[in-house]
Amino acid sequence: MTANANQPASEAVSPAAKRRGPDLTEDPIGRLLIALAVPAGIGFFFMIAYNLVDTVWANQYPAPGKAANPTGAALARSFGPFFLMQAFSIGLMQGTTALVANALGAKEHNRARHIIAQAMIAGVLVGITLFLIATVIPVPGREGTFIAFYYELLSSGNAEAVRLGLAYIYPIVFLAPALIVISVFNAILSAKGDFTTFGIVQVAAFFANLILDPILVFGGTPFSLYGLNVDLPNFLPELGVAGLAWATVITQLAGAVIVMIVALRTGIFSGLKLREFIPFWPLLSQVIGQGVPAAVNMLLIAGGFISIQFFVPEIAKQAGSVLLETMSPAEAGEAAVNGYMNAARIEQLLLLPVIGLELALISIVGNNLGARKEERIWRAYRLAMISALVVTIVGMIIQFAGHSLFPSWINESDETLRVSSGMLSISAFLLPAFALVFMNSGTLQGMKRPLFAMIINSVRLVVGPFVVYLVILQIAPGNLFAFWVGYGAVAWGCGVFAVWYTPGRMRRVISREFASPAA
Hints:
mainly alpha
């Protein structure tokens, strides 16, 4: 009975997988990178454009063009906790993708299905835990939840800033468990090389959000944008910053349902048994072992944004800051954090091809490691590195040329634009360094070695910027430009180290994996 169950299930799923998408162990590597990276890049383009739409509307409410727009600053501060929740979702997805891709490459389809069931259990537990910590469990020794304490700390106790931040983040928190669990279905599609569904869902979510944002933010209150006057029906409630959050909840839940339906139709759940959802430590430990470092890596990225959101306004408020020529220290801090996040959104758009290539690498390398095809692993690594450097050099030229123009499309105040423009003029030259870090991290993630990304991002995003901040306090207080230069030196150091370290690590992993008995 067991033998019969194993073999037919494997044979039933494998042909279906070949018919539904590219063969990651046989198709030409160049074609695979394009076929996987392009839809993934398009999906992430619309995901970031989605966030840009939120940023634009936040800067228009309650009045456009204010340098220290409180709603825009509240949305910028909310990036940290929002990304914190996404970190576990993306971490679980990347870890599960690597494991499932490896199992599919080795033709172990029953094992792949069991891994997915265990990942879903892990997702449920993590989602509920995050929800409770954010909304129920109080901070030891003080009143209020952890999320309220976060806003109080980052806004220096500004009551209005805390209120606006909580108004935005609470609806998102309620979405967290569903987002984390649905990431497993995304992992199924990623492991099979299907990034098209992700792209289509993000495009649809973007346009839905484009419509919902102003309706839920302004309600029946007349508003204008770029000279266009709009007057919606009076019965619509004006939700303000909370409207941005509810638009996100509605569109993301709808997209999650679509992803789940497509994943269920892949056939990978054929032969699924209820007992496979019972925690099984040999597999659950692998999911945790892959997912936790990937999640911590995403947390470090969030931590980097949060730390820089602290460093930038503090530097802007110091004597010597050019913003203090026209603003109070408090206003300078708000303008600085708003300007930084506006610039970060633009930078993320230009990094999209690299993000797409990284996701493609995880799937291609994972499948070919399972299939024990060393030559294809090396070919994918080298071709992805060359491609990433080419596209980031082009992106570098575009970003530097538009470092003053692009942020003016989001916020028109001179002070905020000064911060955004200064950051983009320096970070343009960092895009190739980011490409080196992403490609090497993605390759090792696909080889089931996620710790490298966690360690290098801790240096690139947390430790390095903190050291630079301390140095700036001593030698150039109030100088944001000097801070960005120091941050750039850290980024390039990490990129060069990644190129030196990864090939040797790949050889050791391949030697160890190929030496073990074939399944």
